[in-house]
Amino acid sequence: MEAHYNLGLVASDQGRVPDVIKSFRKALKLRPEFVPAHVNLGNAFMRLDQVEDAAKSYKKAVKLEPSLALAHNNLGNALGMLGQNDEAITCFHTAIDLDPNYPDPQYNLGSALKDVGQFTEAEESFRQSLALKPGYAAAVKNLIPICDVAEDAELIATAETLRANPDVGWEDRMLLDLALGDVYEKQARFEDAASSFRAANILKREHTPYDLAVHADKCARIMETYAPDMSDRSGAAGCADNTPIFIVGMPRSGTTLVEQILASHPDVYGAGELTHLRSVVGDDVRAPDDPAAMGADYVSKLRHINKDAPRITDKMPDNFLRLGAIRLMLPEAGSSM
Fold it and tell me: Model pTM greater than 0.90?
């Protein structure tokens, strides 16, 4: 068992995620009660955006070792991605109760509370995570938009000090640049704000390779696959359920506001940014093999989030790449109530 588990760890370090899953599954076949393998298997599924499988692995770990704060925290992250916000918040509280000095569940609780509009409680959790882990750049980045920066010179000084630290990793520096850009903009220091935002963009571009030609080719293949005549010819073959409302667009284009407006209607439940459609459709370019079954599968995943709401929103912005699949799978999605 140990050999398979150790092979999984090595494969994880090397980024060979499918091999990670194979190795941990072999280890668990030999020792089903081995909690670290369940946790790491869940982590591997998360890296592949197979969030439901990840949640199952974390649930097994929690069942086998209820006192493991890490497992509760990771389960909370998975449930949050599945739109099960109340359950996620419960997991984070459990992790905090088990290990009050563990900063990650405090931060994740803050993020979950922020997503459901509980900003005062979210600020408290972010501050607690920062107290437990000085230099927690993500906590600083999330605190700045929800606190009064005009009265919080200490938080701004913390962000500036962290940003100037050469030992801070590039992702944290990028978050800090974004946070400071927001601060300087609020202070009408527009040149400093532009400089911070520009620095964040440079870091992102340097460490996240992007090939415009590859993306253009992908978009061309999507348009070819989902030509209008195909949609018109196949639309009736999908699942007729009209539960889903898809909100799509570019990041920062107002998808959150649109969802909040829709969710103010008593018949609409706002589920946030879900990975469900990606897991059902898979490759954006490939047309659904069985539109009706895949549409029904997607709806069933929504019903795990809320079994009663007449309409449920999914505001994953990049689902615009999957609009052709949505048209085939769920021709009634987003229709009038």
Answer: no
